[in-house]
Amino acid sequence: MKDLKERTIRGGFARVCAQAANFLFRLGSLMILARLLGPQDFGLVGMVTAFTGVLNLFRDFGLSTATVQREDTTEEQVSTLFWINMFVGGALTVLALLLAPVMVMLYREPRLLEITMSLAVGFLFNGAGVQHSALLQRQMRFTALAVINIVSLTVGTALAIGMAELGLGYWALVAMTVSFPLTTTVGLWIATAWIPGRPHRGTGVTSMLRFGGTITLNGLVVYVAYNMEKVLLGRFWGADAIGLYGRAYQLINIPTENLNSSVGEVAFSALSRVQNDPIRFRSYFLKGYSLVLATTIPITIICGLFAGDVISVLLGVKWKDAVPIFRLLAPTILVFAMINPLSWLLFSLGMVGRSLKVALVLAPLVMGAYLVGLRYGPVGVAFAYSGVMTLWVIPHIKWCVHGTMVSLRDILFAVGRPLLSGLVGAVFAFTLHSFCVPHMSALPRLVVGCLVLGAVYFVMLWYVMGQKALYLDLLRGFRKRSLVEENALASA
Fold this sequence. Notes:
By secondary structure, the chain is an all-alpha fold. The protein has 21 helices and no strands. The two termini are 23 Å apart. The model is unreliable at 481-492 (pLDDT under 50).
């Protein structure tokens, strides 16, 4: 326990670096596939994944989180949970197969039958790797997890690009989606070198099932809330509309998903280990929270200010209709950076019931906004969604932190400094960007804007706002851990 801080910083650094590579890789693959495939190809697969994504929430039944959150687990418990996950994966595969004809009738699109049936096998692959992933998280082997993720992404993307070059259209996206869980599970089995035993009764997994079930229900409510608009757009506006909205939404969510995945896994594991130490718990949480915000704010500003250039560079000119959607969705990057880390807080403290209550209030608010904006198409939905999420953020934070070691004041203080730094940087960047418009093409203009914003933001945050000590402390923790490992290797 005494070296937990260094292990956390070390693991977090490794995960952030790996996720940065993951981010760039996903962005590059999206740029290539967006030029090889059309909005309709993405829209057809998006119609299916909007539904299969709901089933995907049940793939581990929250049992990976339960395994990580528990202070102690036994071999019998983990083996029993593995077989439960396998049963759930098989059941989800059968359910997805049964849903295939329903998808065809709902969207009036016969091509969805084979797409849905093909994607169904991914649930079996996922179920086989859930507990292996949880074991790596408990051991804080985040570098191994990151490598597995990148290798799986590489394999899937290479397969998709090759199939798209051959003119196979949406089947390239189907192959990428199925190959990812297969490759990931193979990597997890190799990395853990753990073979599950037979299931056991009376191993105390009931409380873990209850904990995991609540997390799964929470995830289901949140998923429905955040993805219902894609179903509605596909049903009433067609494949092209959902293709445009889906690519804009994906670009917006790539940084959010990468940051929450890289920092979140490490933070949750570390916070679970110190859940009974309030001082360390609060310190760890706020440092992780500040890191996510400091990274997210400039990304949010870039997406909002330079939406046209971002879409032109990343997707190409045929996606120009996605620009207003992308710009309207940009504020949600910051909103999710502010509210997503609160799940680390609640889950590590075992307060999954409160998280579920928050989700049950949020869901109807968001879905109501979709219905209001739906008549105006993808742009109307994006505006309504972004607006409601922005209005909800403060009540969400206040509810989540109530009665915990962290206060609303702590959160606002963590947000204030990087946000003000970002706004100052935005003024300089936008002014220079405006002068460059007549003289530069999209790529160099975007690069100049990002460099100016980044430079001003760094100076403001590091020196003017006095955040230098925070990041130096994180760096010292990483260097200290590195020296310990070097000395251990030298002694060996």
